[in-house]
Write a sequence for this structure.
C-alpha cells in the first residue's frame, strides 16, 4: 500500500497561488526557450525573473513608472 505524502500541502499551495497570482502563458518558436534561458543565465536570473525584469524596464522607458510592485 502506498501512502501519498504532501497532497494537502500541494492543494493548499495551489489554492493560495490561484487566489494571489495571475498566470501568463506564451508560445514561442522551437529554440526560443533556450535563447531566453541563455539570456536569463547571463543576467543571473530565472526565465520568469528575466521576463518580468524586461517588462519592468520597458514600462520605465515608456514613462509608465515603476510597476515592479504590481507584477512582483
Amino acid at each position: 500500500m502506498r501512502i501519498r505524502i504532501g497532497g494537502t500541502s500541494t492543494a493548499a499551495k495551489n489554492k493560495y497561488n490561484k487566489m494571489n497570482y495571475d498566470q501568463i502563458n506564451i508560445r514561442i518558436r522551437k529554440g526560443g526557450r533556450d535563447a531566453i534561458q541563455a539570456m536569463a543565465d547571463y543576467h543571473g536570473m530565472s526565465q520568469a525573473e528575466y521576463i518580468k525584469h524586461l517588462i519592468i524596464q520597458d514600462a520605465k522607458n515608456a514613462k509608465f513608472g515603476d510597476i515592479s510592485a504590481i507584477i512582483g
The mean pLDDT is 90. The longest helix spans residues 47-61. Residues 24 and 71 are 11 Å apart (CA to CA).
